[in-house]
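Final report, results section. Input specification for complex C-07:
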Amino acid sequence: MSGNGQKDSTRCERLRMTQQRRVILEELRCNNIHPTADALYGIVRKRLPRISLGTVYRNLEILTALGEIQTLELSGSQKRYDGVPQKHYHIRCMHCDRIDDAPIAPLNTLEDELYGATVYTIMGHRLEFVGLCPDCSDNAEARRLAEQSLALPAEPY
Amino acid sequence: MSGNGQKDSTRCERLRMTQQRRVILEELRCNNIHPTADALYGIVRKRLPRISLGTVYRNLEILTALGEIQTLELSGSQKRYDGVPQKHYHIRCMHCDRIDDAPIAPLNTLEDELYGATVYTIMGHRLEFVGLCPDCSDNAEARRLAEQSLALPAEPY
DNA sequence: ATAACTGCAAAGGCTTTGCATGGAT
DNA sequence: ATCCATGCAAAGCCTTTGCAGTTAT
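Structure output:
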């Protein structure tokens, strides 16, 4: 951190479209799998076997800052990356962690109810649906585990 | 991992209310700060100076499984813990990461629009508001940074 | 020559886990 | 005696970073 508050704003005098950067962007754009950095690394390595994981992370950060892709902070410990930079919601499979787009338009009035009710200046929201993907819906054990994870005991101790 | 698929379901023949567990629960209940594990560790250590961070994590996991508290996976890399086990939404300050309850009732019809529109079996949603807390709202630099972080360039490369 | 970029490996931050010890029934 | 819980330290997982070498202008 070079002490100007922004995370790297001294870079990018002129940006180069390297092989690595292009392939990362292409692979994110040409499918819709919302991969983790590591999964994308595996995909990109088929075309560029010598690329490093650090390069993948660095380019994902740069492409996000440029608005070419978006970095998703969904539930789960790993970040996901989306080749579509426009805001949209996602749905996560509770059993296999697959992520898909949620076919629903942005809810721009969601924060209206909060105006005046909170001391915060509200600037947006993050919404994520959870459920079971088709494959896991067909799996009885996956359904059982999912339902169990939603049930909270919450009885007096 | 002892090979039964569940994460520790073999424990809890009889659960003990130890000093450590009680203090952790009390400190989560008596205030509303949604601390990280490490922040809670700092708080609890004032009363139990010899407690370890591992014990804090272990008890947070157990108390969550019991439904006594909830573990929040909000944006940001660290988990937060909430002494109120009932589902409710939260709002996060984009500048200082303070978390408060969002004064809005659960939106139980949110997933209705998705029925039939997705191949997933929808089972719930996670919603989080983002904005600026009162202190950071008063801070011009915080406001500038927050607005800047919301603006996506998204121009052709 | 300059500045951006890369591969590699090390370091970092947060969380989980193994192990020997301690405490309650 | 049993078994749950603890403190401590090490390991793990994901991500970031330092550095020396490479590439494009």
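Chain B touches chain A through 53 residues (CB under 8 Å). The radius of gyration of chain B is 19 Å. This concludes the modelling results for the funded period.
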